[in-house]
Amino acid sequence: MKASAFVYPWDVNGDPEAPGRIAALGVRQVTLASAYHSTRALTPRHPRHRIVTAEHAAVLYPTDGRWEGRTLRPYPAGDWAPGDAFGEAAAALTDAGLEVHTWVVLAHNSRMGADHPDTCVVNAYGDRYPWAPCIAQPATRAYLVDLAAEAAVRPGARGTELESLGWYGLQHLHAHDKTAGVTLGDAGHYLMALCFCPVCKEGYGDRGLDAGELAAAVRDALEPLWQGAPDDGGWAGVEKLLGVRTAAATRAWRDETARTLQEAAVGAVRAAAPDGFQVLLHADPVTHHVGANAGVDPAHILSVADGVVVPCAGGPALLTPFAEQGRADAVLAANLGVVSGMGGSPGTLAEDAARARELGATQIRLYHAGLASDGDLDAVREGLAAL
């Protein structure tokens, strides 16, 4: 069962022992960040530093001329990943016998939202989400498609994994997050993710909804949740809060918007890539879900991409809708946490991977080789050996 470990360039560059240490885990592949959002990351073994602060979303390589004269363009990294940080790390990992695939974060960029607030998702209360570009806006879509192609197809890469290729909402942490005071379930998060920028308002109108009336209906629907009422959850909860017809119309707009963006981005990557280049999406099998693992229709996405990377932190059940499509050639990669301090379970890796395989997984992803302690890595090594 092929395993790949997630890695940042700063885990490798400046640490000559890192490539061999990662290869010794028993993985055959690394998924190496080439475009990434802001983060603060621990580097527990690096000889030069212990903390890396990536101050904003950035590309970790030099961009080409396609961005000249454009308002929306990738931001270069600062001193946390100078020059061609991706290329340097990729070369070192390849020399250690590892297959390198790119890890590309797309519609998650708080720096772009701060510099260009009109690109942001706007909720029913008029609040902007700087970390969440609205994927319905034409300029944003063009930016994301070109970024996907450029960041995915880097020299030496054999494939890519595209993260955040869909709608973003409230859930993902933003700086020092203080949003857990009221429990919003699945339905509440969907309503808080509905965008009311001018493009989305027009999209709702094309589906027979008045955007102003819809925003008011969303606010009314959320009011009981702010008062502490339970969220019934799931799509049935959205229908109960918003009404069946209205809920269906909002979902139709959002599903089509996400699907067409995913088709365009994957198509752009394929056009730029050599033959045999593998294209995977980080994905959730429920289309109305938002976030890093984009909500997708399993049948559709497996007709577009070569496969998916599926979050399994809560167990492997999300693999089943993809496995049920019967695509024998599709990659179904179970994403398993192996950093115990972040909720991962490296000690049960062999059991978790075996269970994932029973439910259709063909590969596993390990989050995250650079962040894990020595003890966690020892457990990963033992787990992969047992497999």
Hey, roughly how much beta strand do the residues contain? 15-25%
Query: Helix count, per DSSP?
Result: 14
- What form results from the Cα inertia axes? globular
Order of helix and strand elements from N to C terminus:
EHHEEEEHEHEEHEHHHHHEEHEHEHEH
By DSSP, the count of extended strands is 14
Q: What low-confidence regions span 5 or more consecutive residues with pLDDT below 50?
A: none
Strand order of the largest sheet: 1-2-6-9-10-12-13-14
Residue-averaged pLDDT: 96
Helix share bin: 25-40%
- Main sheet record: 8 strands, parallel, barrel
Overall radius of gyration: 21 Å
Distance linking N and C termini = 8 Å
In terms of structural class, how would the helical and strand content be classed? alpha/beta
Topology summary:
Layout: E1 2-7, H1 9-12, H2 18-23, E2 29-36, E3 39-42, E4 51-54, E5 58-59, H3 85-95, E6 99-105, H4 110-115, E7 120-122, E8 128-133, H5 138-152, E9 159-163, H6 186-193, H7 198-206, H8 211-226, H9 234-242, H10 244-272, E10 278-284, E11 294-295, H11 298-304, E12 307-311, H12 320-323, E13 331-337, H13 349-358, E14 363-367, H14 374-386
Parallel strand pairs: 1-2, 1-14, 2-6, 6-9, 9-10, 10-11, 10-12, 12-13, 13-14
Antiparallel strand pairs: 2-5, 3-4, 7-8
Helix pairs in contact: 5-10, 6-9, 9-10
Question: What do these coordinates show?
Answer:
- This protein has 387 residues and is α/β, with parallel strands linked by helices.
- It has an eight-stranded parallel β-barrel, surrounded by five helices. Strands 3-4 form a two-stranded antiparallel ribbon. The protein has a two-stranded antiparallel sheet with strand order 7-8.
- The longest helix is centred in the middle third of the chain and has 29 residues, at 244-272.
- 38% of the residues lie in helices and 18% in strands.
- It is globular, with a radius of gyration of 21 Å.
- Strand 13 (331-337), helix 13 and strand 14 (363-367) form a beta-alpha-beta unit.
- The mean pLDDT is 96.
